[in-house]
Design goal:
CATH superfamily of the largest domain: Alkaline Phosphatase, subunit A
Largest sheet: 10 strands, mixed
Number of strands: 18
CATH architecture of the largest domain: 3-Layer(aba) Sandwich
Helix content: 25-40%
Distance between the termini: 30 Å
Structural class: alpha/beta
Strand order of the largest sheet: 5-6-4-3-7-1-8-17-2-18
CATH class of the largest domain: Alpha Beta
Radius of gyration: 25 Å
Length: about 525
């Protein structure tokens, strides 16, 4: 017995010596899939759930509600260090690391120290790791799991750190941050070779601040480069770097059109998710995967209800892929959450379009008349909203690209009717096209560098993106007819949902109401407790 005890003690001591200071072994889940709906507040969820309940048109299969039905539910209140409203960079730093962070920073605590993220803890447990987004891979949410920079806009540095991280699966847009700056010159040596490498579907444009060739560096680091849907659907092994657009990937309305074209080179977010899971699940030790439905946020910044609904359906498709893979498994934890709410969005009742009285017969055969004094929303409107053919942001860009003499209020009203099915008045169109001096003008700040911008009569300071203001004005003009309200072109401090599905020993910790920092600690505890 003493001999058994001696060898057992040696084994325990040897195990402890293999650990880093303060590190302990944990019975971690084999696989963790973290799904983030960027900008997805409670009302964005309501829009999707009500559409799935009431729509009479052909629509994507419902997966959000079944996921919520089977999940442990919690609420998270995201706030930055010494602030009230969070941005995506700070939010993902807190969610991924469990430490307080400053606004617009990635991978640093509020004192500037580098932090370890849940992805890095997973790697220490021998897990393969992946980051997938429908924005661009250097954008805040995917970058925040590996990048360490004080300013999120330094995407050239972020691209370098992504490659250096060794993350096995990187799938998104953002090719421009991996191309040498000199290749913007159409006569530059190497442009033809680059075009042959990445495909003719790209208009080569580097967004880097230097001439580092990160595609070459990625290949030297063992990455296989993928730039098309056709390549994505082929069998692959080893590390993969998939970059499917120069900057951000297309919005969900355009992505739906691309998906219907068998020759399209653009993969869907669901296809990228399937690829990520198929690749990472080959690791017998399991994996950690983050999937971002990032353009929920972009649509909400634009106050664009139709595109927002399409973005929520894109999230539905991602959850569908995940649900099919996890069915019957007891070794995988799936978490759905958001980093913040965007747009102060909501469905609301109003004084516009009040319905006529309705008379019904009750069980006793007596007639009862219902005469509401307000319009509480017609469920059929949701199908009209979903029928939108173009997002407001590219619609606004298209209009502003017209010759000056064609940029008339009547032309804008026609475009809006053609692309949305909703009508605005000439007066509304004229108001959309009104401009004013930018009182917040700041050279060098992307959203504020225009000296004049579209005029917004209320809450103007909360629409700080000059390019997005025209799109937001379109959304606000349609709000009454669509039965929605928008209060901001930026983020709010609304709580967001956390839904955890999987073995109860992992999901129970996600019940309750907590901060983004506390959510980060709960995630890290999967690998440390």
């Amino acid at each position: 017995m003493n001999k058994i005890f001696f060898f057992l003690s040696i084994a325990i001591l040897s195990t402890s010596l293999c650990l880093s200071p303060g590190q302990t072994y944990a019975e971690a889940p084999k696989n963790v899939i973290l799904v983030i709906g960027d900008g997805m507040g409670p009302s964005q969820l309501s829009l999707a759930l009500l559409f799935q309940r009431y729509s009479k048109e052909k629509r994507p299969e419902s997966h959000i509600k079944p996921f919520l039905d089977k999940s442990e539910l919690g609420w998270m209140l995201p706030t930055p260090y010494n602030g009230l409203v969070i941005d995506s960079a700070c939010a993902i730093t807190e969610i991924s690391s469990g430490v307080e962070a400053r606004s617009e920073s990635l991978g640093l605590d509020y004192s500037g120290n580098q932090v370890k993220t849940v992805l890095e803890y997973a790697r220490e447990h021998g897990k393969s790791t992946g980051l997938i987004s429908d924005t661009r891979i250097t954008h805040a949410t995917p970058a925040g799991f590996v990048a360490k920079v004080p300013q999120r806009s330094n995407e050239s540095k972020i691209a370098e750190q992504l490659i250096e991280s060794g993350t096995e699966v990187l799938l998104s847009g953002g090719l421009g941050q991996f191309i040498p700056r000199d290749l913007n010159n159409k006569d530059a040596p190497g442009r033809l070779a680059l075009s042959a490498l990445i495909g003719s579907q790209f208009n080569i444009q580097s967004d880097r601040t230097d001439n580092r060739d990160l595609l070459k560096e990625a290949q030297h680091a063992g990455y296989q480069l993928i730039t098309s849907r056709q390549q994505l659907l082929q069998p692959n092994s080893g590390k993969i770097l998939g970059l499917f657009s120069i900057s951000g990937m297309p919005d969900a309305i355009r992505a739906d059109l691309e998906a219907a074209d068998p020759n399209s080179t653009l993969p869907t977010l669901a296809e990228m998710t399937r690829k990520g899971i198929d690749t990472l699940s080959a690791d017998p030790d399991g994996f950690f995967l983050m999937v971002e439905a990032g353009q929920i946020d972009w649509a909400s910044h634009s106050n664009d209800t139709g595109t927002l609904l399409h973005e929520m359906m894109r999230l539905e498709s991602v959850l569908g892929e995940i649900a099919r893979w996890v069915e019957g498994r007891d070794d995988t934890l799936v978490i759905l959450t958001a980093d913040h709410e965007t747009g102060a969005f909501g469905l609301s009742y109003s004084a516009a379009g009040v319905p006529s009285p309705t008379t019904v017969k009750n069980a006793a055969g007596l007639e009862v008349t219902f005469a509401p004094q307000y319009n509480f929303g017609n469920p059929r409107t949701l199908d009209r909203i979903y029928a939108q053919k173009q997002a407001f942001y590219p619609l606004a860009k298209e209009f502003m690209a017209l010759p000056l003499w064609k940029r008339r209020p009547e032309r804008l009203a026609d475009l809006i009717r053609e692309r949305t099915g909703f009508q605005i008045t000439a007066e509304q169109s004229q108001m959309i096209l009104s401009s004013e001096k930018n009182p917040y003008f700041r050279p060098g700040v992307a959203g504020l560098s225009a000296k004049t911008w579209p005029k917004i009569n209320d809450f103007s300071a909360f629409y700080p993106d000059a390019d997005g203001r025209l799109a937001a004005l379109i959304g606000r003009a349609l709000a009454s007819e669509q039965g929605v309200v928008w209060g901001s072109g930026s983020h709010t401090a609304s709580p967001v949902i956390v839904a955890a599905q999987g073995p109860e020993r992992y999901t129970a910790r996600f019940r309750g109401f907590y901060s983004a920092v506390e959510l980060g600690k709960k995630l890290i505890s999967l690998y440390t407790e």
